[in-house]
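ugh ok fine here u go
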Amino acid sequence: MDTLTPEKRSWNMSRIRGKNTKPELAVRSMLHRMGYRFKIADKTLPGKPDIVLPRYRTVIFVHGCFWHRHPGCKYTYMPKSRIDFWSTKFEGNVMRDKNNLSLLEKAGWLPIVVWECEVKHNADAVLDRVSGIMQRRLKKLADV
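structure:
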């Protein structure tokens, strides 16, 4: 049972941001420091990727573990109330994410998913992984 009034719950939920989140800003900052240039939130691409690197034909999604259901993550818990609602909501999010990744791949883009907890706990490893992927991608594009 929710202990908050509907007005207070609405206010709390309105504070959950969908863009320019701390993990997203951290990834953008790291990429920028390494010399990568990018666009943000390109609405013309499926799923509106958080970061778009046109030169690499690569997009990066910085997913929140709770909303996008990071497998095995401690932040991927199920709320105790309205379980049917949340199950449907989370299932829809995961299916939409898979569909968007598939559409991007079919269009020739390389989608990369970075999880909120990865950025929070080991940002350097995330940056190394993303940078390595993009370097291999640039080499592959040059060979074509």
